[in-house]
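Might you be able to consider the sequence and fold that I enclose below?
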Amino acid sequence: MDDRSDDHDIEVEGAYHAYERKISGILDDGSVGFQQPLLARNRKNTTSQIAIVGANTCPIESLDYEIFENDLFKQDWRSRKKIEILQYTILKWALAFLIGLATGLVGFLNNLAVENIAGFKLLLTGNLMLKEKYFQAFFAFAGCNLVLATAAASLCAFIAPAAAGSGIPEVKAYLNGIDAYSILAPSTLFVKIFGSIFGVSAGFVVGKEGPMVHTGACIANLLGQGGSRKYRLTWKWLRFFKNDRDRRDLITCGAAAGVAAAFRAPVGGVLFALEEAASWWRSALLWRTFFTTAVVAVVLRSLIELCRSGRCGLFGNGGLIMFDVNSGDVLYSTPDLLAVVFIGVVGGVLGSLYNYLVDKVLRTYALINERGPWFKVMLVMAISILSSCCAFGLPWLSHCTPCPIGSEGKCPSVGRSGIYKSFQCPPNHYNDLSSLLLNTNDDAIRSLFTSRSENEFQISTLAMFFVAVYCLGIITYGIAIPSGLFIPVILAGASYGRLVGRLLGPVSQLDVGLFSLLGAASFLGGTMRMTVSLCVILLELTNNLLMLPLVMLVLLISKTVADCFNRGVYDQIVTMKGLPYMEDHAEPYMRNLVAKDVVSGPLLSFSRVEKVGVIWHALKMTSHNGFPVIDEPPFTEDSELCGIALRSHLLVLLQGKRFSKQRTTFGSEILRSCKARDFAKAGLGKGLKIDDLELSDEEMEMFVDLHPITNTSPYTVLETLSLAKAAILFRQLGLRHLCVIPKTAGRPPIVGILTRHDFMPEHVLGLYPHIDPLK
C-alpha cells in the first residue's frame, strides 16, 4: 500500500514538472506545447474565491450571462425551426405562470402555518395566565419558542446552511453574476420554507418576507433547470433553459413573486426586482415579471376568500398582511410637514445606526458559526430564551389600561387571538405592551397602524416596545434561521412613528395611525435605501393612496440622511459575506488606472489544434474557467486571438474523445457529430469534473480542434483603456471574461483576461496601496 502511494506521488510530481515544462513552451519530445506565458506582469489575484452563503462558507464562481457564440451555437441557431422558437416563447410564459402559482401557494401555506402554530402557543399562554399560573405560562411560552427555534436552527445547521438569513443578498449576488454551491438548491428551498415557519412562530423578531424572496428564486431555479436529478424530481419537457441568461430571467421573476406573496403587493414586487434585486433589466423581462406577480395576487386572493369562512383555523380573519390605515381624508398643515421632515431625519439616523450594529453583530456571529453546527444551534437557543424573557417579562412593567368604549366583547381577548391581551390585568382591562409583544408580528403591526383610539397605547409602552424591538431585531438577524429584515424594521419604525404622533397630538391634524405608517417608511428608507419600490409596497399594504405624497417625502429624506453615514443593509451584508459584487458605477480611483495595470498572470493559452495532454494538465493544475485560444502558424500567417474556450466545454469535448493523431484542423467533423445541447450548462452539481475523465496514454498524445467550441467574438478592450470604463463595460454587458489586447503590433495577441475579481477594491488597492480610494 505504501509503495503504491509512493508511486502515485512520483507520478503526480512527474506530471506536475512536465506541466511546468509545457508552460515554458517545450515538451519532453521537443514539440511546442502551451504558448509562452502572456502577461503584463507576473502578478497573482489574491482576492478571496470563497464567500459566506447563508451561514455556510463555500467557494464561488461567476455565471456566464454572455451568449457564447461558438460554431456549435451558430449551427444550432440556424437550424432552429419556427415551431421550436414558438415552443420556447410559450414555455417562458408557462414557466412564469408556474413560478407565480407555486410561490403564491407557498406564501399562503407559510402564513397559514405561522398563524396557527403561533396562535396555539399564544392561546395556551393566555389560558394559563387567566388561571394565574404565571410560572407555568412562562415555561409553556418559552418552551414552545425554544422547541420551534431549535427545529429551525437544526434544519439550517445540518441540512442547508445556505438557507440561513434573509436570502436577499444571495439572490442579489446571483443576479449580479455570482454563483455558489447550494445557493438555490432544492434542500435550501425545503429548509427556507419550514425553517421560516418555525422561526417566525418561535417569536423571534424576524419576518418571513426576505425568505419568501429567496424561496421564489429557488422555485424558479428548480423549474428552470428541469427539476433535480439528485432528488429524482425531473421534468424533461422543462429542460430548455440550459444557459445562465434564461435562468437569470426566471430567478428575477421568482424574486418579484416572493415579494408579491409576502406583502400581497404585485406592483411592489416588480419594482423591488427592478430597483434592488436585478442588475440587468429590459422591457421583455418587465412584462413577464408583472405577469408572474399578477398570478401570485390572484392565487392569494382566491385562497384568502376560501379561508374567510373559518376553514383555516386561526388564519383568515385579517387577511394576508393587509394593514388598514384610517381611510378618512388625510389633511395636513405646515406643522405636520415639519413633523414629517423630523420623522424622516430621525428615521435616517436610526436606520443607519441599525445597519452599523447589524454589521457588527453579523461579524461576531460569523466567528461563532464557523465553529460548527452545534454552536449555531446553541446560539439560536440562547437568543430564543432571551427573546422569550423580554416578551414575557417586559409587560409586567406596563400598567393596565381600561378597555376602550365600544369594544365590549373584544376587550380583553379571552380564549381567542386578539389585540387586547389581558395578561395580569383585572376584568375590562388590558395590558397594552403584552398586546404588542405577546402577539404575532403581523398583528402587532396591524395594531400600531390602526387608529381605533389615540390612547390605545401609552407613551411609555411605545418607548419600551421600540427599544425592545430595535435591539432584538439587531441581535436576532444573523443567527442560523431563515430571517427577514422587513418586519423588524417596520415594527421598530411603526412604534417610533406612533410615539411621535402621541407626542405631537395636540398640534397635529394627522392621527397616530398615519404617523405610525410614516415612521415605518422612514426606518425602511434608512435601512434598505430603496424608494420607489418601498413606497408602492407600503401603499399596497395599507390601501391608502392619500398618503402617497407624505410617504414619498419621508422616504427621500430618510434615504438621503442615511446615505451620509453608510450603505444600505443589503449592500453591507453582500460586502461582509465576501461576495464580489459589481456595482453599476466605477470607483473614483479607477480613472487613474488602465486595464493592463490590474491584469493577473501568468496567463495560459491554447493553440487552435492542441494536444490532449496539454489541455488535461492545464485543467488539472488550474481552476481557470476561461482559456484564450490562439491561431498560429501553420494555420495562419501570424499569431492572432481566435477567441475563448470555457472549462466546461473543454471537459465535454475531452470526454467525447473526438481526437486526431495528426495536428490538423477537423472542426467540421466535430460539428457533424456534436450538438449544442451536449455543451449546455448542467444544473446544480451536475457538471463534469476533471476527475471524471478517463484518458489513456495514447489519447493524451493525440490532438483536438478547439475552434468549434471557441467563442470567436469575445469582448476585447485595448490595454490602455481606462479601468473605470472597463468596469462599467464589464458590468453593463454582464461579462465573465474581458480580453485585454495589446495596442502595438509585434507582441503576443492577448495581454490578459479581466474577471470580476480583478475589479474588486481588495485586488486593485492591494496592487497600488499608495492610491487614495476616494480620488
About this structure: Residues 1-41 have pLDDT under 50 and may be disordered.
